[in-house]
């Protein structure tokens, strides 16, 4: 029966597949949370960048309008660091806000002011208010124009005459710095827990930009805008998100298919084959086309090996049972017949006839005992571990003593390790030397070639005829049945060799017979 085996190729181990799936499951929500946070930060910074750009333009418009009124240079001078910065050809202001709870400030409101804006501010207030209101219709931002003390001169809503001088970012702007802040819309005691669900009800971006005329701060513009919320962003990007969802769906289906392909399908196939074998619907499992992972391939290999071993043992048991039944039938018949003659005709039989019948009973009983002994040896062969080694030198004296009727010559590399246990070596030598003695040999040479890993037993006996060369390894085949031959000696030796991955073969010989036992290294 040809050996079945699983095709050898790289397969990911089951632990690697499980680890990859677990890592993916862990990564997806973390990645989603990170992306949501990045999106929130991006919304805030895009709004901050937009307000900074608007504040620069509005501050220049405010400065031009105020300068046209004859505004006196009575504002605070710019700090030296700001002067140096503004002397650069490009001095951009980068957005820095982040939507983190610990970085969001409390809301600020207008407070009454004891100061009244100067006449120059009042002169341009209506014009600035109109500009703020018209701009708000498109930008949706809130605008306030402040004087040097933080008093609201004009706005897109209400608050003229009120003060924002107490606000940190306004104070920084009145000192010549562009300042931004992220603030909640409602005070802590008025804030609803659900307000955090929608970004447009949670916080606002505040930008304060100084108005500079001739190196002095003439006031500030204060802009407020709610950044775009995630809900609005999702609606705006709904088509892109739909495509992304389709990709994720395909990815999920792909992960599911891979899991089914490399895990579920091979396991179900192995289970189905095992059930079919158990029900008797299949003699043995067959290699699957795909095993998925290396552990399942190893499992498939083990099942094939086990099934093949069980099949071979079942066939061997059936074969040996048939042969044993056949072989025992003849001696049993002879013994029973002789016993019946002795029982029924014992008084009429002469002494010579009685002696002949007793000899037959004894010979046939001995033949049965020899046959059963060889079967016990065969059974012992199947229980050897196969992990031990021996050397030919350890058995040289035993072989010469046990077969004193033969001239046993032990040669070759006597100290080389042979992959047989001491008991297996004794069985091999016993069977082959006995076989040589049964076929008229006088001299037997036992030799081990360590390089070729071959144990040879050559005798000078009758040899093997061409007609019998194909049958000598068949169990129970013997040409010396009349002399007690069982036909099991060579079969037992061959079984030992096969158990170690080797083979027993008949070598070429000019006289006698040479048996070669091929053994792995």
Summarize the structure in short.
The chain is α+β, with helices and mostly antiparallel strands.
Sum up the structure in keywords.
single chain; 11 helices; 521 residues; 5-stranded mixed sheet; alpha+beta; 5-stranded antiparallel sheet; 14 strands
Q: Can you tell me the residue ranges where pLDDT is under 50 for at least 5 consecutive residues?
A: 193-200
Share of helical residues? 40-55%
Counting DSSP E segments of at least 2 residues, the number of strands comes to 14
**Portion in beta strands:** 5-15%
Number of helices: 11
Strand order of the largest sheet: 3-2-7-6-5
Largest sheet: 5 strands, antiparallel
Q: Can you lay out the helices and strands and say which pair or pack?
A:
Elements: H1 14-68, H2 80-87, E1 111-112, H3 119-139, E2 142-146, E3 152-155, E4 162-163, H4 168-174, E5 179-184, E6 203-213, E7 216-225, H5 230-236, H6 238-279, H7 294-345, H8 351-381, E8 390-391, H9 393-402, E9 407-412, E10 417-418, H10 422-438, E11 443-449, E12 454-459, H11 489-499, E13 503-507, E14 514-518
Parallel strand pairs: 9-11
Antiparallel strand pairs: 1-4, 2-3, 2-7, 5-6, 6-7, 8-10, 11-12, 12-14, 13-14
């Amino acid at each position: 029966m040809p050996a079945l085996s699983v095709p050898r190729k790289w397969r990911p181990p089951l632990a690697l597949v499980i680890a990859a799936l677990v890592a993916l499951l862990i990564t997806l929500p973390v990645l989603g949370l990170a992306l949501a946070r990045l999106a929130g930060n991006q919304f805030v910074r895009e709004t901050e960048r937009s307000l900074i750009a608007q504040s620069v333009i509005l501050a220049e418009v405010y400065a031009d309008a105020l300068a046209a009124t004859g505004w006196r240079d009575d504002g605070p001078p710019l700090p030296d660091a700001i002067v140096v910065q503004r002397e650069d050809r490009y001095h951009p202001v980068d957005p820095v806000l982040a939507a983190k709870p610990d970085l969001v400030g409390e809301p600020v409101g207008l407070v009454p002011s004891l100061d009244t804006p100067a006449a120059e501010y009042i002169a341009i207030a209506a014009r600035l208010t109109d500009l703020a209101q018209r701009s708000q219709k498109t930008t949706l931002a809130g605008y306030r124009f402040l004087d040097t003390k933080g008093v609201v001169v004009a706005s897109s809503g209400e608050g003229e005459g009120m003060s924002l001088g107490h606000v940190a970012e306004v104070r920084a702007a009145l000192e010549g710095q562009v300042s931004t802040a992220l603030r909640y819309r409602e005070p802590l005691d008025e804030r609803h827990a659900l307000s955090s669900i929608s970004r447009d009800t949670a916080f606002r971006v505040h930008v304060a930009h100084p108005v500079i005329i001739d190196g002095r701060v003439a006031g500030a513009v204060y802009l407020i805008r709610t950044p775009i919320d995630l809900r609005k962003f999702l609606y705006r990007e709904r088509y892109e998100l739909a495509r992304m969802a389709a990709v994720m769906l395909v990815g999920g289906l792909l992960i599911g298919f891979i899991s089914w392909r490399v895990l579920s399908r091979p396991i179900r196939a192995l289970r189905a084959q095992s059930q079919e074998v158990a029900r008797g619907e299949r003699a043995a499992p067959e290699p699957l086309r795909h095993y998925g992972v290396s552990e399942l391939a190893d499992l498939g290999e083990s099942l094939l090996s086990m099934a093949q071993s069980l099949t071979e043992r079942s066939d061997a048991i059936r074969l040996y049972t048939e042969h044993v039944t056949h072989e025992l039938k003849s001696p049993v018949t002879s013994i029973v017949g002789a016993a019946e003659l002795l029982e029924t005709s014992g008084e009429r039989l002469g002494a010579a006839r009685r002696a002949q019948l007793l000899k037959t009973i004894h010979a046939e009983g001995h033949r049965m005992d020899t046959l059963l002994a060889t079967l016990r040896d065969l059974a012992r062969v199947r229980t050897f571990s196969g992990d031990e080694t021996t050397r030919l030198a350890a058995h040289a004296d035993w072989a010469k003593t046990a077969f004193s009727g033969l001239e046993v010559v032990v040669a070759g590399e006597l100290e080389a390790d042979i992959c047989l246990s001491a008991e297996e070596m004794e069985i091999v030598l016993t069977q082959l030397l006995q076989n040589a003695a049964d076929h008229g040999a006088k001299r037997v040479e036992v030799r081990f070639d360590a390089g070729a890993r071959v144990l040879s037993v050559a005798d000078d006996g009758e040899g093997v005829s061409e007609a019998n060369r194909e049958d000598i390894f068949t169990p129970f085949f013997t040409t010396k049945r009349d002399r007690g031959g069982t036909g099991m000696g060579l079969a037992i030796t061959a079984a030992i060799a096969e158990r170690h991955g080797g083979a027993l073969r008949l070598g070429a010989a000019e006289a006698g017979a040479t048996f070669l036992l091929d053994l792995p290294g």
